[in-house]
Amino acid sequence: MSRELTDLKSSLQAAEAAVASDLEHKHLAHTHAHAAQLAAMVVPDFPTSEAAVQAILECLRSHEFTKAVRYIQECRRQWPSGVFGGSSETEVQTLLNIYFRHQTLGQTGTIALVGSRQDLSLICSKLLELNGEIRDMIRRAQGYRVVTTYLPDSSASGTSL
């Protein structure tokens, strides 16, 4: 998953740069042919945020990364808060989060490291080692018997505090 997301991140960053470049050219566009070409890039109005997420996932699956970036930009305009991220998160991060959440539906404890320059096999082996240690600690803790001492009930002995 980490490798897949890292590759996806690289593709999305290139797409993000291409979209930014297209927007710059859009401001400079004066020719009719170029204006028609830009009109073909119009983003649809999504009826619901769920429909938008599905459209974005379809773009990511079919490697239409520039379309996915345009869709996320439109979704942020339509739904400023929520699953489409806020101003603290880049469009690429939001797209990676949406993809990761969809790919790991129903799985708990899934972790992906994106953008790490380190060898992931070393990190994975360390995580597996830690997981084993935690499992052993839990097993040992479950083996301990809880010993409770029963103190005589003060009301039964007739003393009051």
UniProtKB/TrEMBL annotation:
Looking up InterPro entries in the UniProt record yields: Fry_C
Domain Protein furry C-terminal, by residue range, is 1-161
Q: Which Pfam families match?
A: Fry_C (PF19421)
Would you say which domain of life the source belongs to?
A: Eukaryota
What's the name of the protein? Protein furry C-terminal domain-containing protein
What species is given as this protein's source? Goodea atripinnis
